[in-house]
Each structure stands twice: as C-alpha cells, then as structure tokens.
Amino acid sequence: MARLSQLTDLKGVGPKLAGQLEKLQIRTLADLFFHLPFRYEDRSRVTPVGGVQPMRPAVIQGEIKGSTVLFGKRRSLLVKVQDHTGVVSLRFYHFNAAQKNQLRTGATIRCYGEPRRGASGLEFYHPEYRILEDGTDLPLEPSLTPVYPATDGISQQRLRLLHEQALQHLQHDDVDLVDMLPAQWLQQWRLPTLKEALLFLHNPPRDTQLELLESGQHPAQRRLILEELLAHQLSLFKIRAQVQADQAPAIRPSSSLRQQLLAQLPFSPTAAQQRVTQEIENDIQQPYPMLRLVQGDVGSGKTLVAAMAACDVLEAGFQVALMAPTEILAEQHLQNLSAWFEPLGIRMGWLAGKVKGKAREQSLADIASGAAQLVVGTHALFQDDVHFARLGLIIIDEQHRFGVHQRLSLREKGEHQGLQPHQLIMTATPIPRTLAMSAYADLDTSVIDELPPGRSPITTVAISDQRRAEVIERVNQACAEGAQAYWVCTLIEESEALQCQAAENTAQELTAALPHLRVGLVHGRMKAAEKAAVMASFKAHELDLLVATTVIEVGVDVPNSSLMIIENPERLGLAQLHQLRGRVGRGAAKSHCVLLYKAPLSFVSKQRIQVMRDSQDGFYIAEQDLQIRGPGELLGTRQTGLQMLRVADLQRDGDLLPQVRDMAQQIWSQHPQAVEPLIQRWLGDAERFASV
Ligand code: ADP
Ligand code: MG
C-alpha cells in the first residue's frame, strides 16, 4: 500500500474540510501531526471532592445535595455536590428551567471544570456535566485529553477524531513521515523517536505528569523543540552558504591610508575597536563576501571601526557605501567622514531622498563612474537607478531598522563582474548572546565591548509628570551652570504629525517658563536644512535647551549636554530609551536622565523604567528587554522566522541553543541529506521568504 501523505488520504476529509484545515496552516498529513495540543485536560480520573484544589481542573462525581437560585448582584444557580470526602459548589449564571429541574437534589452528577474560590468556598463555574441515571456508569477517558488550536468550522472534537485516525496510520508506519535525527543522538540525549514523540503528545497516557507537559519539559516535547530549532539554525547556515558561494574581492589591509586617518585623530582606537577591525580585516582578505555584524553599545565608537575598514577597501581601489536609517544620521555620518577622509584625498558621495534634480544626477554619475569613492546615504542607495562602479564594501549602520530583504537587495546591487561586495552591519541594539547565535547564525558577529575612556556615568531617575514644574526648574539650574539639555517628546510612532505638534507645544511651554534660556526645536517634519541648522547651533552652544522628537535618537553627538528629559518614557521600548539616553554622558560632566512619566504606569512600564535606573549596560538592558518583551519584538523586522516558532519558545528553551548549534553543524557536515527536509518541515514557505 502506498504511504499516506495527503490530508485527503484520510477518511472523511474532502476538499471542504481540507480548505478549513488550511486556515490552521494544516496542508499535509505531516502538518496535521505537527499541529500539537496547546494544553491537556485530565478527564481520566475522578478527584475526590475533598481533594479538589483551586485552579486545578478536575473531574468530580457526587450526589446533588441541594440547588438554590440566589438573587445577588447577578442571579445564579448554586448546586451543592457531595461525595464521601466533602462538599463543593457548582455555580451557573446562565441557566434555564429545564436545567434547573435536571440538577435536582438526589441526582448523581459527574462534572469537569476548574474550581475557583467563590462566595461559598470552592466553586466550579459553568462546568461541563452529565447526570448519571441510576446504576449507569460513564467511562472515563483512557488518556489525557488534548486541546488543539481550533478555528471556526472545525471543532475540538473534529480535530481529535482526525488525529486519532492519523495516529492509527502512524502507529502502523503507513504514513510518509521520516525521522531525520540520527538514532545515536536520540539515544545519547535520551530523546524519543519522532513517531514516539508524536504518538505521545497527541495522546499522553493518564499517568503523565501534567506539570511536565505544561512547562514544555517533557522529553517528547523537547525532541520536537530541538528539531524545530535545528531547522531554523540550518536555514541560516544555508543562507550563509549561499552567500559564501559568491565571490568577492580579496582585500589586503591598508598600508598607508589607515595610518594617515589615525594620525589626524585626537585619540587612538580602543583595544576593542582594534580587535574588531582585525576581525573585519581577516574576513575581507577572503575571496568570498564578508557578512559581519558589529554590535557596540551607544557611543562605543562604531564609526571609527567602519572608517578603518573603509581604509582597506578604498586603498585597494574599491568604493565603499555607508547606509544609515535616517537622513539625520546619514548627514551626521557624511559630516564626520568627510572631515576624516577629504583631507586624505578621498572623494565623498551623498545620496538621500532629499537629493533631487541636478544634484542627484551628479551624485548618480559620480557613483557610477567611481569618482565618488566613499558614498554615504539612506535607503535611497537601494533605488534602481543607483549603479556603483566598483563597490567593495557595504556598511549598514543600525541594522535593526533594515529588514533582511533590504540588506540582501543592496548586496545584489553591488555585484560587479561577478564579485559581490563585503558587508558590515553595525548595530547599537545589542542582541543577547543566546539569541544572536540563533537569529544571526548567517552572520559572523563582533562585539565592541569597551567604551572610549573619559565617559561619565549617567544617573537616571523616574519622576511623575505631576512634578513637571520641578523638572523644568532642574533644567533651569543645569543650564544656568553652563550645561545643555535635551527635552524629548514622545508619542506613538504612527503619528508623526501629532508627535511634531507635541514637540512644538512643549517648546512653547518651555520658552514661556524659561524666558532667559535659548530654546531650540527639532522634529521630523522640518526641512533637513532647518534641522541641520538647529543641530549645529545646539552643538555650538548657541542653544541651551533642545526640544526634540525621537529623531535625535541616533547619532547626535554633543558632549556638553549633560541633562536629558524624556517625556512619556512608558511609550518607548527599552532599546529606544537606551539609545536616547546615550545622547548624554558623552563629556566629562556628570550626566542625568529624567524619565518624566505619566502615572499610573503599567506593570511592564514599571519594569522597563526600573531596568533603565538599574543599568547603563546595553547588553544587560537587551537581556532584560528579552525577558520583558520576548524575542519576536526584539528582533524587529528581521524575518528569520524565529518569530514564527511553532513548538519552541526561545525564552523557555534558550538553554538548548548551544546544543542546537553544535548539532546543526554536525548535521550540516555529516548528514547533509537531512538539511533540506528539516528546513521544509519546519519553515516551509517561511524559509523561502527569509532568503529572498
Ligand atoms: P557609536 O558607536 O554610538 O556610533 P560613535 O562612532 O558615534 O559611536 O562615537 C561616539 C563618539 O566617540 C564620537 O565622538 C567619536 O569621535 C568618539 N570616539 C570614537 N572612538 C574613540 C576613541 N577610541 N577614543 C575617544 N573617543 C572616541
Ligand atoms: Mg553610530
């Protein structure tokens, strides 16, 4: 007999039901097996009434000792049930006369539900129940009852029956489902085979410890979790292998440009900057593209690392492109890099959305001819009419805002005579190590784990906006003593117009309250030239106080500013708060950050604010962020598919990751035939999506 593989191979499944199952992402028989229960009910035993515990679902059976309609705030029917160990209540808010009659004193009842503490002690609210006619006995379930994610049109019961049928076939080995993990591993890790795991999880025997299943710790679950994480890891290995199959210019370290650059700087690179630069140089000497992620906290000096790498590539006669996520940041890079590189005879290029008309044509021509050697820009660098003459290195700043797609499309753009550019991605949002290993397995990572000397710690306090006047006075004081301050207005990001309006109002309010201070305003709706002018006068200390929207989040560098007020910090994530705060503490003066929140704070906001007060370490903050928000949000737009995990949970199963990585490496080299099927099983379409 041919093995079953289609859903329609099951009895009772026609096109209609198959269509409905598709809503649950169940398209094949294998999908059905991997559609796992999200919880279980134990209807396999009767719990003595005296042993019932709050919040623990249970089956009870006993005699009805009375049923009363109560007229409290809401009318309800209270039914007392007794067995030889005690009495417990059932409570119904919705009931009809027939029901009331059925629940008569003296009848024997069996019910299933979750007891809670109520007015009459432990109560079952709206339990499922059956009245047992005299002498009859209802059988109990032989195993734990699975509860599946369901949807309109497909009931639990339907799903259970389908699974029962499918499991019968699995039992008899006549379905198309291959165990791809090597048997010796399973032995070594004491894990069940795929067949054992699936049979178990869809139908756990009644003596299974529910707690084990609920916490995802059962070996049958761990087996599948491991397999899913492996599949993800392998999909990233695959992307990486695809990239490394490309060719790139092998670039020798710069012999003079780098020295000239460093010679004109008033400081020398930190040990961490040197180490990371060395790692980059090792990569770009290879004849295939580098894909390296540099993580470095705000202010750790990522720009210098990028510049040192650029020296090698420029000196070898290739172009370098640096892309930033916002115009403000791109402009700042252009300014800094021009100041560093123009004196060395390097010609700069510039491309952003606002570069239009003749200027844009000129830019495009210079990029295409190679006259522009170091090109800075925004995502405008992606556009179709941008062609590089000889692009050797792409540097992407603040990667978390770029999707993996953009990153890959830029790489294609850079192809020239069969050579791909090297890629360096810099992010100030540190990714916790465990997560980085999984989410960025297609990249090599470097960490700048040291700040340049001379930074002073920032004191962070949280103050309710009822004490706004005090905070304004504090700004007054600080500025009177010669410091400069930021006042950041935040609103939900979707509405830039409102955000700018809020900043304008605040600027007016502060100007009125502090008439002797020079107050400036910068927000996203101003023309770039206006923004730049305001930033320049703040930098030159022609302004004392800068009111801003979160546009100043990235890149702005004014060492004399030592006070930052962040309004409504509860609206921002930890990563963003950390970035914002990084604008102060850049000079020698002691710096302060005031989180001016609106009470009452939610639990999560309180947690976040506490983290900000506790620490200034980007990695610690990221770890906490992971705890609070979960990995999906932290990874942002990056479509690794890790947000789409089916059985694994990175927070719960993070301990498996190091092992997963080792195993993935072994599969990759020793069982290559398993790679593709594993990826297909767990990622299917998602994988294609991620590697576009
Ligand atoms: P980020 O990593 O946040 O992008 P930047 O590259 O903007 O940091 O650097 C922050 C500031 O530190 C800049 O003013 C930069 O010139 C300065 N800086 C960078 N490296 C060093 C160093 N080794 N010693 C002293 N200052 C440095
Ligand atoms: Mg930077």
SSE order and pairing:
Blueprint: H1 15-22, H2 29-33, E1 39-41, E2 58-71, E3 75-83, E4 86-92, H3 97-102, E5 108-113, E6 115-118, E7 121-125, E8 128-132, E9 145-147, H4 156-171, H5 183-188, H6 194-202, H7 210-214, H8 219-244, H9 257-263, H10 271-284, E10 291-296, H11 302-315, E11 319-323, H12 327-341, E12 348-351, H13 357-369, E13 374-377, E14 391-397, H14 404-413, E15 422-427, H15 433-439, E16 444-448, E17 458-464, H16 468-480, E18 484-488, H17 496-513, E19 519-522, H18 528-539, E20 545-548, E21 561-567, H19 574-581, E22 591-597, H20 603-614, H21 618-629, H22 631-635, H23 650-653, H24 657-670, H25 675-682, H26 685-690
Parallel strand pairs: 4-7, 10-15, 10-16, 11-13, 11-14, 12-13, 14-15, 17-22, 18-20, 18-21, 19-20, 21-22
Antiparallel strand pairs: 1-9, 2-3, 2-5, 3-4, 5-8, 6-7
Helix pairs in contact: 4-6, 6-8, 8-24, 8-25, 10-11, 20-21
The structure holds adenosine-5'-diphosphate and magnesium ion.
Magnesium ion is lined by residues 302-303, 397, 555.
Main structural class: alpha/beta
Hetero groups: adenosine-5'-diphosphate, magnesium ion
Q: What is the rounded Rg?
A: 32 Å
Give me the count of strands: 22
Mean pLDDT figure: 87
What is the topology, as strand order, of the major beta sheet? 6-7-4-3-2-5-8
**End-to-end distance, in Å?**
39 Å
Helix tally equals 26
| CATH architecture classification of the largest domain | 3-Layer(aba) Sandwich
Total separate domains: 4
| Full CATH superfamily name of the largest domain | P-loop containing nucleotide triphosphate hydrolases
Fold-level CATH name of the largest domain: Rossmann fold
Global geometry: globular
Helix % is 25-40%
